[in-house]
Structures are given as structure tokens and as C-alpha cells.
């Protein structure tokens, strides 16, 4: 029986999934396949590295540092979010919060980070083979929100956030041989994604990256379709959905320290229920 997990990300809403993973780590829960989109790619990496609590400050502390996000970055760096600060300066071996890259690479679980080729609009599923000590462009590419970030160049190709091409990679998990998939959402399971904000952002990248802009315009439809499919598969026992009952008022880039802490705690609490479901599932 092969069990996978998909973390759909969602900017700072990813703190919910970070809480879920921390609780699973305490319960020694593992997965055969881990797939992360956007912030989910970093959450999954820390989870596979066994670094409980590592992701917590990425949602409750670092967003309030001007080096990471703010209007000043637009003036001096040409982007609102400085992903290099997060995934290089802080995460490198000599950084403030280093990723245990060796543990990640040694994990027996398969790892995939979804990013979108800005030129072709197609999804690319990066693996551990694309990661090495202090070289974490894979996370940056998966998290590169259009307009807020410049695309990240890997192998000569520019990449944007994986949610533009595959916001809920359930099919990818099944293609990899998973019999059951845990789907971690960062908004309520019955809350549909509104396309209006994506459509506005798409206009701003349309001229330079028309295929990526098209993916952005269809992101909400793809997300809503996949979640609807996941609910059907849940009834068949093929998917386990874990999702918050509310978002505590947090959107992709909402900077509210108390709300972010509460949202993490909500994920941590829900992680206990998920752990119990997984333990029962494995026994069955």
C-alpha cells in the first residue's frame, strides 16, 4: 500500500500545513511520496528532513522582516517577495535556519516540487536530483508568485509558482503509484477559489509570458475541479482531505502575527486527527 501526501501551499496560509506536518512528525508518520506546490514544496522538504518546527518562523516571524517582503523590496530588488533571502540566506548551511539537506536527500520518501515553466505554461515536477546542499532554487521556483516575484531561472528556463499549472497535483500522485493520497488544503474544503485576483495578475504578465498568464487565468477552475474530484475520491477511500474550518482571516500575503500563529496551531491540532486516521488506515 503506497500512501502519498499533497500540500497545495497558498503563501502564508501554508502555516496551516506546517502545523499539520509538525504533528505528524511527532507521531512518526511518514509517506511514500510527498508533493508540494508553492509554499508546500518547502513544507514537504522540512518534513522529510525531520525538522519539526523549522517552518514555523517562516510564517510567524520572517514575513515581518523587510528583507523578505515589503514595498522596499520593489524599489531595491524589483519584487515584493525576496525568495533568495528565505531559501538561500536563511536556509543555507551557514544561515539562521538551515535546511538539513543531507536528511532530506537520504529520506526514503520520493519528493516532488511543482513549478510552472513561464514560457510554455507547463508543469515541471522537480525532484531530489534537482536539489543539493545550499542550492534551493527548486523551492524558489515553486513559490514564485507572478507580479509579487520575478520568475526563477533554472536550466536556462524561467519558472513561476506551480499553482499556475497544477494547483492540486492529485493525478500526479496517482501516476506515481499512490493507492491513497492525503490532501492538505489551506482553505476550507468547501470554499471555492475566486478567479478575479488571478485574472488581474494575468494581465500584468500577459505580454512577456502569455502561456503563464493563461495558466493563471485558469488556476481557479483547475483548483475547484480538483477539490471536487478529491471529495469524490474521499468517498471511495482513495483520498484523505485535511483542511481548516476557516482561514483566520489570512490570505496569501496577509501579515497578521496573531492570526498566523493561530492558523499554525489550527493545523497542528488537525494533524492529530489526521495521524489517528492514518494509523487506523494502515492497520486496515
Question: What do you see in this structure?
Answer:
The chain has 284 residues and is of the alpha/beta class. It is 43% helix and 14% strand. A hairpin with a 2-residue loop joins strand 5 and strand 6 (157-161). Helix 1 packs across helix 12, helix 5 (83-89) packs antiparallel against helix 7 (137-143) and helix 9 runs antiparallel to helix 10. The protein is globular, with a radius of gyration of 17 Å. It starts with a strand and ends with a helix. The model has no long low-confidence stretch (mean pLDDT 96).
Q: Helicity range of the residues? A: 40-55%
What does the largest sheet look like?
8 strands, mixed
Distance between the termini: 11 Å
Instruction: Describe the global form.
Output: globular
Mean pLDDT reading: 96
Give the gist of this structure.
The protein has 284 residues and is of the alpha/beta class.
Feature tags:
284 residues; alpha/beta; 8-stranded mixed sheet; globular
SSE map:
Blueprint: E1 3-7, H1 14-26, E2 33-37, H2 39-48, H3 56-60, H4 71-77, H5 83-89, H6 101-106, E3 110-117, E4 123-126, H7 137-143, E5 152-154, E6 157-161, H8 170-175, E7 180-184, H9 196-205, H10 210-217, H11 219-235, E8 239-242, H12 257-283
Helix pairs in contact: 1-2, 1-12, 5-7, 9-10
Amino acid at each position: 500500500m503506497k500512501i502519498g501526501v499533497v500540500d497545495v501551499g497558498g503563501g502564508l496560509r501554508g502555516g496551516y500545513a506546517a502545523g499539520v506536518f509538525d504533528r505528524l512528525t511527532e507521531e512518526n508518520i511518514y509517506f511514500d511520496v510527498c508533493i508540494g506546490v508553492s509554499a508546500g514544496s518547502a513544507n514537504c522538504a522540512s518534513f522529510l528532513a525531520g525538522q519539526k518546527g523549522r517552518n514555523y518562523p517562516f510564517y510567524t516571524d520572517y514575513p515581518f522582516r523587510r528583507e523578505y517582503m515589503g514595498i522596499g523590496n520593489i524599489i531595491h530588488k524589483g519584487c515584493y517577495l525576496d525568495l533568495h533571502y528565505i531559501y538561500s540566506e536563511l536556509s543555507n548551511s551557514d544561515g539562521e535556519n538551515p535546511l538539513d539537506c543531507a536528511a532530506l536527500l537520504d529520506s526514503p520518501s520520493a519528493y516532488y516540487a511543482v513549478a510552472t515553466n513561464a514560457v510554455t505554461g507547463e508543469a515541471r515536477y522537480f525532484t531530489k536530483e534537482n536539489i543539493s546542499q545550499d542550492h534551493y532554487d527548486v523551492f524558489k521556483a515553486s513559490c514564485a508568485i507572478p507580479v509579487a516575484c520575478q520568475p526563477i531561472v533554472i536550466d536556462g528556463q524561467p519558472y513561476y509558482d506551480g499553482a499556475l499549472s497544477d494547483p492540486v497535483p492529485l493525478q500526479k500522485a496517482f501516476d506515481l503509484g499512490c493507492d491513497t493520497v492525503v490532501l492538505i488544503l489551506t482553505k476550507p474544503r468547501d470554499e471555492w477559489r475566486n478567479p478575479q485576483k488571478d485574472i488581474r495578475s494575468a494581465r500584468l504578465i500577459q505580454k512577456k509570458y502569455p502561456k503563464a498568464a493563461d495558466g493563471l487565468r485558469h488556476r481557479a477552475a483547475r483548483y475547484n475541479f480538483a477539490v471536487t474530484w478529491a471529495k469524490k475520491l474521499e468517498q471511495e477511500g482513495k483520498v484523505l482531505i485535511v483542511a481548516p474550518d476557516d482561514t483566520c482571516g489570512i490570505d496569501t500575503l496577509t501579515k497578521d502575527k496573531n492570526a498566523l500563529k493561530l492558523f499554525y496551531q489550527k493545523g497542528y491540532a488537525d494533524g492529530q486527527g489526521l495521524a489517528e486516521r492514518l494509523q487506523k488506515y494502515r492497520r486496515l
